[in-house]
Write a structure and sequence with these properties.
The protein is an all-alpha fold. It is built from nine helices and no strands. The protein has two domains: about 160 residues, no CATH class; about 90 residues. The protein starts with a helix and ends with a helix.
């Protein structure tokens, strides 16, 4: 059986691969199984009805065989599996109606099986809205027939078109098997998708946990970097303040002009280095949102002159 199902699935593999939704993939497989199985089912009944002389049943099963075979070709070559599934449901509905009006004139087991098959296929193949629609058009004629029929009320019989016992047994057995297989296949696809979703959810949770751990590690690293830069900046400011203080003290001791120029360069370089250290501290404040902007005045000419003095000695 698995070999036969695999062969049928491979026939519609080009349609299955085009669908990204796993539910639609299961629907295409289910439609393929139904079309192939009912083609075989109708072929058997054609032989049985032809031998038994059941001409009325033979006409109907021949029509259904041709339609089923044609729908199989349409689905295979055009890929219009949704339209084909609608047509299959309408064929099932017509079988129910014809049983009530022509073939059986009562509600027998086969009619109930086709009703259940139509209702289940409507929901499984097309969702809630179409499911309710096909359930209504299959069930309402039965309710109407039961309400109007006073002779066969609650009677489950074979009706006026008598067929052989083995033929009838084959029909209801085949329908029962198809209904059970329909439930099995769709429930199997549902469980598979549910397990995939659960596995994806667990993987996502694990990924989120790893990401959270990585964020904590990065936050700790950033905090350690900030602490290190703050400590180093404070440690560097202490000797620089001493250098600046000593240069100011030497400048007050009436140095020679050349010494005065060298002391000015030393003082400017030390103050410039102190400014850079203060900038490092401000960069750390960016991470903690504690930066306060300051507006201070400065002498542009003195700034350019001091920079010139710094590079003058190296240039000479």
């Amino acid at each position: 059986m698995n070999f036969a199902l695999g062969k049928i699935s491979r026939l519609f593999n080009h349609l299955i691969l085009q669908e990204r939704d796993p539910i639609n993939r299961a629907r295409i497989q289910m439609l393929a199984y139904i079309l192939c199985s009912y083609t075989f089912f109708c072929a058997v009944l054609i032989v049985v009805y032809a031998i038994g002389g059941n001409n009325l049943q033979l006409i109907r099963v021949c029509v259904v065989f041709v339609l089923t075979f044609g729908l199989f070709g349409i689905a295979y070559f055009t890929g219009a599996w949704k339209m084909v599934s609608h047509l299959v449901l309408w064929i099932c509905t017509i079988v129910v109606w014809s049983n009530l009006s022509i073939y059986v004139h009562s509600i027998n087991i086969a009619t109930l099986q086709f009703i259940w098959l139509g209702c289940a296929m409507g929901f499984y193949m097309h969702g809630l809205k179409w499911g309710w629609f096909y359930a209504a058009i299959n069930i309402l004629p039965v309710l109407l027939f039961t309400a109007l029929d006073s002779k066969n009320f609650f009677q489950l019989g074979n009706g006026p078109q008598i067929v052989g016992q083995m033929t009838y047994l084959f029909v209801i057995s085949y329908n029962f098997f198809l209904i059970i297989f329909l439930q099995y296949h769709f429930f199997k696809a549902f469980i598979k998708n549910f397990l995939n979703l659960t596995r994806t959810k667990n993987e996502l949770r694990e990924l989120n946990n790893k990401l959270q751990d990585s964020l904590l590690a990065v936050e700790k690293l950033s905090t350690a970097r900030m602490d290190f830069l703050s400590a180093m900046s404070h440690e560097l400011r202490t000797p620089l303040n001493g250098v600046i203080g000593m240069s100011n003290a030497l400048s007050l001791q009436d140095p020679r002009p050349d010494q005065k120029e060298h002391l000015d360069v030393l003082q400017f370089s030390a103050e410039h280095l102190l400014s850079l250290i203060n900038d490092v501290l401000d960069f750390n404040k960016f991470d903690s949102d504690n930066v306060v902007l300051e507006r201070t005045s400065f002498d542009l000419a003195a700034l350019i002159r001091n920079n010139h003095r710094v590079f003058k000695l190296k240039a000479e």
